Amino acid sequence: MLLIGMFDSPFVRRVAITMKLLDIPFEHGNWSVGRDFDRIREYNPLGRVPTLVTDGRETLMESGAILDYLDERVGPDRALLPRSGPERRQALNLMALATGAADKGVLQVYERAFRPEDKRHEPWVARCRAQMNGSLAAIDRYLGERGVSQWLVGKRMTQADITAVCVFTFLNDTLRVAADPVVFQSLGTLAARCESMPVFQETRVPFFVPNS
Ligand SMILES: N[C@@H](CCC(=O)N[C@@H](CS)C(=O)NCC(=O)O)C(=O)O
Questions:
Q1: Which of 42, 70, 146, 148 lies at 20 to 30 Å from 191 by C-alpha?
Q2: pLDDT digits (tens), the chain, 212 positions
Q3: What are the backbone dihedrals phi and psi of residue 148, each rounded to the nearest 5 degrees, phi first?
């Protein structure tokens, strides 16, 4: 299998971590959405990552759809998203908040990377920042109430934890969301716990400016 996209993307990274945890080997197409745009579009007309090319030459796009395929491949007992019921709904809600925060973060990063300075619109950037912070705060509050030593859902690490941590680390690297240690303290504790695990360390790379 070929996983296209750099690990500085939280969307690519959550797929890579999942594949490693589920013992699914892959070749890594470490291609930049800026520099390797045309090459990525040969596989995904949208020019987006992650894109996964399966051994059966099927091309999958959107990290959520790719994760769904990976869970299906390993079966319900090993799947990283809870199978059904309140835990599944809670995990999906937390992941929606996390990926939503990441989307708003990516927009802010691209504003700096792709848009000339005189064309930037600060009120729009501020709106993205407020949406991003609001989502992170909701996850942080939820975990704080649950207990910082807990996983986000159930009694084991699930896709909700992987996604929340990949997003939090990305937003911290690019936009310094946790510069003040009091803000997002619970998420910070969860991230520190996960980032010390080998599977997270193997996919931890410095952020790369997209159009360089
Ligand atoms: N909803 C998508 C978001 C993926 C995404 O935003 N990827 C970024 C990299 S972090 C990308 O490909 N950007 C290039 C572009 O959209 O032009 C997913 O979950 O896969």
A1: 70
A2: 999 999 999 999 999 999 999 999 999 999 999 999 999 999 999 999 999 999 999 999 999 999 999 999 999 999 999 999 999 999 999 999 999 999 999 999 989 888 999 999 999 999 999 999 999 999 999 999 999 999 999 999 999 999 999 999 999 999 988 766 568 999 999 999 999 999 999 999 987 766 65
A3: -65, -15
Residues with C-beta less than 6 Å from any ligand 1 atom? 9, 11, 33, 47-50, 62-64, 99, 106
Number of H helices, E strands in the chain: 8, 4
CA of 50 to the centre of ligand 1 (A): 7
Cα 99 from chain centre: 6
What atom in ligand 1 is closest to the CA of residue 66? 20
